[in-house]
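Open question from group meeting: does this chain pack into something compact, or does most of it stay loose? Before anyone orders reagents, we agreed to write out a predicted structure and look at it together. Recording both the input and the output here so the notebook holds the full record.
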Amino acid sequence: MMGLYDSLVKKLAVFDGVPLLLLRVYLAPIMIYAGFGKLQLGADVGFIQQFLADPNVVNWFGNPDWGLGLPAPDLLAFLAGWTEFLGGWFLLFGLFTRLFAIPLMVTMVVAATTAHWDNGWHAFPEEKLTVPWEWRNDLIEEGVERKAAVQGLLKKHGNYSWLTEAGSVTILKNGIEFSATYFIMLMVLFFYGGGRYLSVDYWLSRGRQQPLL
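Structure tokens returned:
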């Protein structure tokens, strides 16, 4: 029985690049879109300004009252934007996968600890059974209460069936759930690379003893 199992595992090993490809394809548009949103690429501004961070993002990074209150917001927003934008494209093609996974993981840690930490774990407050490591159950209770209030107002004063036709009404709790998940996915890519056969890294590294960064 174990011999049959070992034989099956060896035969399936030829497909071990597929899950890594799926991780890359899943993460790439998320990172590209996030980075693009932080930059002014394609905006009606000067040529140089297009490569800089959006002033609204810079203000959010630096403002201590309603933003993140980070030092050097111009630099940090610029670095975060280009890390996500370029990193996403490199992940998509599986080029220098391990190398780009590092700054992307750092970006996820910064996002989790600055923009999301105070909101706890869950991204949305609808969970009836929260995980043991949720430290803001109060926000879940408040979110559920406010969601019920919003639904009541919409049902009373609006066309609720039309308003919810494209999706149900929810309250964004905005915890670290997504950034933590992306970090874990990037960590897998850091340790295993872009994957066999289905990444540029593999073909550049073919015949080398060490995997390409």
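Observations to bring back to the group:
The chain has two domains: 16-120+175-213, 124-174.
Residues 124-174 form one domain.
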